[in-house]
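>> Question from a student workshop board

For tomorrow's exercise we were told to take the sequence and the ligand below, predict the bound structure, and bring the output to class. My setup keeps failing. Could a helper post the expected result so I can at least see what it should look like? The ligand is zinc ion.
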Amino acid sequence: MATLKEKKHMSAVADLGCAVCRRMGYEGTPAELHHPRKLAGGWGRSSHMLVIPLCPEHHRGNKGLHGLGTKGFEKYYGYDEAALLKDTLSLLGDPYQEQQED
Ligand SMILES: [Zn+2]
Ligand SMILES: [Zn+2]
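>> Workshop helper replied:
Here is what the output should look like for this input. Compare the format with yours to find the bug.
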């Protein structure tokens, strides 16, 4: 279950548009949310706060994160989902800093 804060964050992330398209210079491509589970687990934070906006193509398409796989994706684009997550968090501010007070 996502808390209200998490839900707000997730909708703000989706509103940014696809993170891969953004790096290609196209802002605001309608996006769905990708949960980088390994990263979330590694950082010990709520996975709902660590989501990346990806358009259907860059998410589930042949040239997407799931289509290529994490390693294939990194090889193809030259950056990984951690870089995209960093982009996302720096655009929105760092939501899990404030979460530590909970
Ligand atoms: Zn995209
Ligand atoms: Zn995904």
